[in-house]
Design brief:
Radius of gyration: 18 Å
Oligomer: single chain
Distance between the termini: 46 Å
Order of helices and strands: EHEHEHEEHHEHEEHHEHH
Structural class: alpha/beta
Shape: globular
Strand order of the largest sheet: 3-2-1-4-6-7-9
Number of strands: 9
Strand content: 5-15%
Helix content: 40-55%
Number of helices: 10
């Protein structure tokens, strides 16, 4: 099977573009000549992303939970497009930390509406454009937590497993066409997602604040947003159906295959080992 057309220099849509991976993707692809249509609920962050770019940009304050507004955004993008649409990155996401026992349904619903239903709404809004063109890519952000279940992340895991299943089902429906459905599984990326998470209390019982838990998460991340954007861009251009981002993503993927029911014990032992980088800080 021949490699698909490169997305480099061609129009793309990116949600969650106000920060993190979304901003890094926008920066990278714009720098390489791509017109970018950017959306995020964070108006100030979105404005900051756009201000740092030098190419053709369309920005839209958008809550991905709103299916009708996603359709309106797709219509605006259709009118704006200077060339056929190369890729749609459904990337917006949030986090909740809680045990299942203490879970607050409203928090879980908030997360599911953004992380899963937002991806579904974005896919349904833009897929008709790609289908009419006869080519393009839907790139949906799952997570390594869409490969393994992780304690105190039940809502996040459920949503990211759902993104994976939804996108893989779509991929089979698109078989034989030049429209592709791609899942992205980032490992620990140094973004603000942990600091913006909903946390009612430390689920481990250690009494940590949200900022303390976020700092511990960030200390364990292994990949910068810029590096993640480069890996994702390269993976899409190489025709990958599934893109693992970061060395920890490859570890999670291997554990899911080798020890599908006892992986958490392995991860716990590995996390207790001191990291080499700590000795040189």
């Amino acid at each position: 099977m021949s490699r698909p057309r490169s997305i480099t220099g061609r129009p793309v849509v990116i949600t969650g573009a106000a920060s993190g991976i979304g901003r890094a993707l926008a920066t990278r692809l714009s720098r390489l000549g791509a017109p970018v249509a950017l959306a995020d609920v964070d108006a100030d962050g979105l404005k900051a992303t756009a201000a740092a770019l030098h190419g053709k940009v369309l920005t839209r304050v958008l809550d991905v939970r709103d299916a009708e507004d996603q359709l309106r955004f797709a219509g605006e993008v259709r009118e704006w497009l200077p060339a056929p649409l190369a890729a749609v990155f459904n990337n917006a996401g949030v986090a909740v930390t809680s045990s299942v026992l203490d879970a607050v349904p409203e928090d879980d619903d908030w997360l599911h509406d953004i992380n899963f239903r937002g991806v579904v709404h974005g896919t349904r809004a833009f897929l008709p454009i790609l289908a009419e063109q006869g080519e393009g890519a839907i790139v949906n952000t799952s997570s390594v937590y869409g490969l393994l279940g992780v304690p105190y992340q039940s809502a996040y895991c459920a949503a990211k497993f759902a993104v994976r299943g939804f996108t893989e089902a779509l991929r089979q429906e698109l078989a034989g066409s030049a429209v592709r459905a791609i899942t992205v599984h980032p490992g620990g990326i140094t973004t603000n997602i942990a600091r913006n998470a909903r946390v009612r209390r430390d689920p481990t019982g250690l009494g940590r604040s949200r900022d303390e838990m976020a700092a511990q998460f960030e200390a364990m991340t292994m990949t910068s947003p810029d590096k993640a954007a480069a890996i994702i861009h390269t993976g899409v251009d190489r025709g990958k159906a599934r893109i693992l981002v970061g060395p920890d993503a490859y570890l999670f993927d291997a554990l899911a295959r080798v020890t599908p029911t006892h992986y958490n014990a392995v991860l716990t032992r590995l996390m207790r080992r001191p990291r080499r980088t700590e000795a040189v800080r």
